[in-house]
Design goal:
With about 500 residues, the chain is α+β, with helices and mostly antiparallel strands. The chain has three domains: about 5-115, no CATH class; about 145-265, no CATH class; about 275-440, no CATH class. Strands 1-2-4-5-3 form a five-stranded antiparallel beta sheet, sandwiched between helices. Strands 6-7-9-10-8 form a five-stranded antiparallel beta sheet, with helices on both faces. It is about 45% helix and about 10% strand. It has helices at about 5-15, 50-60, 75-80, 90-100, 145-155, 190-200, 210-220, 235-245, 280-310, 310-315, 325-350, 355-375, 380-395, 400-435, 455-460, 465-470, and strands spanning about 25-35, 35-45, 85-90, 105-110, 115, 165-170, 175-185, 230-235, 250, 260.
């Protein structure tokens, strides 16, 4: 739908397309540019009032307006409007998208074009360190809900002329702005084009949950794949490090998290703290964090298996002092403690910072002691469950830790109901689930284990000094042989 040269017709079309007069936040204003009539459309609270007042006070100043009639809108815009972000548009669909995003639209009588003044000013919170990814040392800034601010945080760190932000719109109703960020000479061109095509093909009304909704749209997983397929971060330094390794970022407006493509399982075990300490200390904590993965996964299922199926070994190593505890009782102990620990974790996470610490410590001591006295748990089970919880909390990715928690509950059920063979069968299913976890662009989820790349694997397992950690060329994420062709 195109604009006409009649201001009244354009005004009527605007009332038809927009709830003018009904929605309180849509503002209109009749203007006179000399003797030429005009009409302003805008969203209250999303534009800088001071800038608009300055622009139109100049345009309506008789000394500034030498021409009483606007004859050529293009020339008028170039000569009279000194504001930097101004353009002309003739299509109503594009006008509405711009208007509802914050810029101001000016309809001028006698022209089938409209002026778009980008004087938007979004309400935004201050830039602070993300709670989900804290570090002991290093930068304390994090992404916010405004996409332009997030792009500025990245541009501030990477001042390369090849750093590119490609903008597109996702959602037929929400029309959410989404930016594809990459370094032109480092990113895989196939991956960039595939990501751009994927965003353009998405058929969805809105991105309700921001980046998380977009993640589920880009990679469709089955119910038996609880591990995350796309790495999300709220830290600009982490995002920039992946950019310089050839990855592609997806920035979603109204969301403080950034998607990193492609993603592998090893990315969810990395921590920025490794690079803010010495290489030896960083390597130690990184290896300790890798060791926490099997501890978090199989410690409780193995404890249940040993105490319920092998009582002689359990008595020899004092795994359980309760001699009258049978397999069913131990199974109940383990499930009860797992549920209690999950309850404490989520209640502390959703409580205010003033009460979360005391709630976790005092509540854990009181309920743990009462559970032992009521014979709902044993001290040994509480100890091994606490070790499991500590190993889980040491993982930097909450989504990865939650996926391991589901795997652990499945192994507990398999060991408790099927014994040793049930545990082995459940472990095989867990490995199969991990191997079959999809990732974006048909890349290998287990890279650099498959396809094997020893040079890249070393940099993931150990914290190398800076002069050795940066290879002479960017790692090329190899694809499996069967998916080496361009993704469809």
């Amino acid at each position: 739908m195109k604009l006409t040269k009649s201001l009244e017709e354009n005004r009527s079309a605007a009332k038809t397309l927009l709830p003018i007069g009904t929605s309180f936040d849509i503002i209109t204003r009749d203007l006179l540019l000399g003797e030429t009539r005009a009409c302003l459309l805008g969203i209250n609270g999303m534009c800088k009032t001071e800038v608009l007042q300055r622009i139109f006070s100049d345009l309506q100043n008789p000394q500034y307006m030498r021409d009483n009639v606007v004859e050529q809108l293009q020339q008028y815009m170039e000569a009279r409007i000194g504001y930097a972000q101004v353009q002309l548009e003739t299509d109503w669909d594009k006008l509405l998208r711009q208007l509802l995003s914050g810029p101001v639209v000016v309809l001028v009588d006698g022209f089938d074009q409209a002026l778009i003044l980008d004087v938007r000013s979004y309400p935004a919170r201050g830039i602070s360190e993300p709670d989900a990814e804290p570090v002991l040392r290093g930068a304390r800034d994090g992404f916010v809900e405004t996409m332009l601010f997030n792009a500025n945080l990245i541009r501030r760190r990477i001042r390369s002329p090849r750093l590119t932000f490609r903008l597109c719109s996702v959602g037929t109703d929400s029309k959410t702005d989404v930016a594809l960020a990459y370094v032109d000479n480092l990113a895989d061109p196939e991956l960039v084009e595939h990501a751009a095509e994927s965003l353009a093909r998405l058929q969805v009304s809105s991105l309700t949950m921001g980046a998380k909704s977009l993640e589920e749209l880009l990679v469709k997983k089955r119910w038996y794949n609880p591990l995350p397929s796309i790495h999300l971060t709220e830290r600009p330094d982490v995002a920039c490090s992946y950019l310089m390794e050839g990855h592609v970022l997806i920035i979603v407006d109204n969301s403080p998290t950034v998607l990193i493509l492609p993603s592998t399982i090893f990315q969810f075990t990395q921590s920025p703290d490794d690079y803010y300490c010495s290489p030896l200390v960083g390597s130690y904590f990184r290896l300790a964090r890798f060791a926490c993965i099997p501890v978090s996964l199989v410690l409780m299922p193995l404890y249940l298996l040993m105490t319920s199926c092998y009582p002689d070994i359990s008595a020899k190593y004092h795994l359980l002092d309760s001699a009258d505890a049978g397999p069913v009782t131990i199974f109940f102990y383990v499930l009860a403690v797992e549920f209690i620990l999950d309850l404490f974790k989520y209640s502390a996470a959703h409580s205010t910072s003033r009460f979360s610490g005391s709630l976790s410590i005092v509540g854990g001591l009181i309920i743990g002691d009462i559970a032992v006295e009521l014979n709902w748990a044993s001290v040994e089970v509480l100890f091994y469950a606490a070790v499991t919880l500590l190993a889980t909390l040491s993982l930097t990715s909450n989504e990865f830790a939650d996926g391991l928690r589901l795997y652990r509950l499945f192994l507990i059920l398999a060991a408790g109901l099927g014994g040793p063979w049930g545990f082995l069968f459940g472990l095989a299913l867990v490995i199969l689930s991990v191997v079959t976890t999809p990732t974006y662009g048909n890349y290998s989820y287990l890279w650099p284990l498959y396809p094997f790349n020893w040079q890249a694997l070393k940099t993931l397992l150990l914290r190398y000094p800076t002069f050795r950690a940066q290879p002479s060329r960017v790692w090329r994420r190899g694809k499996p042989p069967q998916s080496s062709q361009k993704p469809s």
